[in-house]
Amino acid sequence: MTATKFYFSLLGICGAALLSAGLYHMVWPDYSVSGSLHSFSDQLSGGTSLIQARSGADTVFYRYRLGDRPEYPFAGINIRFPQDSITLEDYENLEVELMPAKAKRIPVYLSFIGKKSNEKDFNSFIPKVYDLNLDAKRKRYSIPLAEMQVPAWWTLAFKHYLAEDEPAKLRYVRHIGFSSCQLLPRQVWDEIQIYSITLRRSRFWFYLIWSACLVLSVCFLVYQRWYFKPPVRIQYTPEEIINRSDEETSKIFEYLTQHYIEQELSIEDIQRATGISVSRIGLYIKKVSGESFKQTLNRLRVTEAKRMMLESDRMISEIAYGVGYSNASHFNRIFKSMEGCTPKEFREKHKKD
């Protein structure tokens, strides 16, 4: 295989891998979260926390101030999905891009639908929470869904809603929410800007499909390299055939030029194929080429090897095997004895010319 074909095959492998990635994302896209925005605070239980929230074309914004009571004040927002729920079976991470003003850590939660959940009581939905540590800049955060847990306070207060559900088996989500930072002083305003919320699918099948395409492409490249070799052209002086009037001589050289790449080729093989005696074969070869059978065989092999070295980038050892030598060292010795230089030197010299 020439260098050009190799590079085109390599580009084909890369193209197949990229195509598989594109098809994966077309068939199994990630989920960009959107829905109706709602705010909540501790005011329903006698608290004094304040919350302001609004949503724009591309962002969600909420501003809050924690009050002096109750002991653990809170405020936040939740986004209700347009459909009744979404299932998390095929998702792996919750990705959020946001920027806080002062908050250092906020709870991010998903409200799951349990067997006793109902729309009239928000607390009947089972929350799983992740405490997200924040940097004071706009940043994208990735939350592993497997690390979100049902908080202990909710289990104590609303365990009757969880009686018939196992948290590990919860799949259907009704809301996604963001709460307030408990590390801030009371009566201090804070604000958080949310730019995107995305549920990322598991990458297991993506990597499996991508790897399968890559392996198949590499296998095809190897198959193409080893089993679709260019045809071997034998260069020898045409006058040698034209000037032969002896039919037996023609048979001998025809067989020799067609089978010289066989590593174990011997004069006995020609005898068995043509029916001409070994002694007469030797005489005919000597008469035409002026050399013995072995010398003539080596000259055919070296002539073809020279052509292959100049017309391809194949390794010298590969060329040696391709013209009938069982090992590269023996080929190097024969080549140097006939050409006065090693195959490597021959290739370098003629490529410079």
Question: Can I get a quick summary?
Answer:
This protein is of the alpha+beta class and 353 residues long. It has helices at residues 3-27, 152-158, 204-227, 238-242, 247-259, 267-274, 278-289, 293-311, 316-322, 328-339, 343-352, and strands at residues 31-32, 36-41, 50-55, 60-65, 75-80, 86-87, 91-100, 105-112, 126-133, 139-144, 172-179, 189-201. Strands 1, 3, 4, 7, 10 and 12 form a 6-stranded antiparallel beta sheet that branches. Strands 2, 5, 6, 8, 9 and 11 form a 6-stranded antiparallel beta sheet that branches.
Determine the mean pLDDT.
Answer: 82
Give the overall form.
rod-shaped
CATH topology of the largest domain: Jelly Rolls
What is the assigned CATH homologous superfamily of the largest domain? Galactose-binding lectin
Work out the helicity level.
Answer: 40-55%
Low-confidence stretches: 238-245
Q: Which architecture of the largest domain does the CATH hierarchy give at level 2?
A: Sandwich
Largest sheet: 6 strands, antiparallel
Residue share in β-strands? 15-25%
Order of helices and strands: HEEEEEEEEEEHEEHHHHHHHHH
In DSSP terms (H or I, runs of 4 or more residues), the helix count works out at 11
Per CATH, the class of the largest domain reads Mainly Beta
Radius of gyration: 39 Å
- Provide the structure class: alpha+beta
Distance between the termini: 23 Å
Number of strands: 12
List the domain count as a whole number. 3
